[in-house]
Design goal:
With 149 residues, this protein is mainly α. The protein has 6 helices and no strands. Helix 2 (70-84) packs antiparallel against helix 3.
């Protein structure tokens, strides 16, 4: 058996070995840092006022009460009235709500549109159209009130 006089080159010194070494160093560092950050995000004090999930939170699967916007509450109330009574009653109450609470004026048109769509579903297009009236035509009054301040 004859041996060569030139030394054999070691295989594996290429880019794959460098990437492997880099990953072997970086991966544990990333895992430790992400675990540390996860632990610091847990509210260990037990205060549930913080939006962060506490470590012993047992209400994860239960729905939480969410404060709804006034226009959403009004829209849902009026949609219920539309189904229980008629669109005329709902439109009257919409106009009264906007008159009593001017901040709802910017949502009036979208609420009236939702009422119209619901009226078509409940009463059909012809009968729903018979309830139409100029509710939410408050853009002029809102502009006057805003300029008067």
């Amino acid at each position: 058996m004859k041996h060569s006089s030139t030394p054999q080159t070691r295989r594996g010194r290429g880019p794959a070995r460098r990437i492997g070494r880099t990953l072997a160093f970086v991966l544990p560092v990333v895992l430790v840092l992400s675990g540390t950050l996860a632990v610091t995000r847990v509210n260990w004090s037990g205060n549930t006022t913080d939006p962060v999930l506490t470590a012993a939170d047992t209400s994860v699967g239960t729905p939480r009460t969410v404060k709804r916007a006034p226009q959403d509450v009004l829209r849902d109330k009026l949609l219920t009235e539309l189904q229980e009574e008629d669109p005329g009653v709902a439109l009257t109450h919409l106009q009264q709500a906007v008159n009593g609470r001017p901040s709802l004026a910017k949502h009036c048109a979208s609420i009236a549109r939702a009422l119209g769509q619901a009226a078509v579903r409940v009463y059909g297009p012809t009968r729903a159209q018979s309830y139409a009236r100029p509710v939410c035509d408050t853009a002029f009054a809102t502009g006057v009130a805003a300029a008067h301040r």
